[in-house]
Write a structure and sequence with these properties.
Layout: E1 3-7, E2 10-13, E3 18-25, E4 33-39, E5 46-51, E6 58-60, E7 68-73, E8 78-83, E9 92-99, E10 113-114, E11 118-123
Parallel strand pairs: 2-11
Antiparallel strand pairs: 1-3, 3-8, 4-5, 4-9, 5-6, 7-8, 9-10, 9-11
């Protein structure tokens, strides 16, 4: 079992930045690809970014490409999402997820473990 916990959410003005962290326990993340997803009120959960097991391959949703950066530190069992140039439409609960595979994908159904989420609110 892998337990995931997200940190770093909060309230920020449009144009600002936040850095989310996802700390894992219970098992090393070295075997897992990791993803970030988000869910806004009344909307389905959507893919944000993913990173391969060793950090060598990253994927981004078009809506965040060029603004968000996913990274990982396997020694610390932690994954990060640096979010810059935030927009009000980025407001959502952000979740990290682990996939028992070396490479990440966009489908939430393909991830095996999920955190509880952290709220990000961007004011205009």
């Amino acid at each position: 079992q892998v337990q995931l916990a997200e940190f770093g959410g909060g309230l920020v003005q449009a144009g600002g930045s936040l850095r989310l962290s996802c700390a894992a326990s219970g098992r090393t993340l070295l075997r897992y690809a990791m993803g970030w997803f988000r869910q806004a009120p009344g909307k389905e959960r959507e893919f944000v970014a993913a990173i391969s097991w060793n950090g060598g391959v990253t994927y981004y949703a078009d809506s965040v490409k060029g603004r968000f950066t996913i990274s990982r530190d396997n020694a610390k069992n932690t994954v990060y999402l640096q979010m810059n140039s935030l927009k009000p439409e980025d407001t959502a609960v952000y979740y990290c997820a682990a996939r028992n595979n070396r490479y990440g994908v966009e489908s939430a159904h393909d991830y095996d473990y999920w955190g509880q989420g952290t709220q990000v609110t961007v004011s205009s």
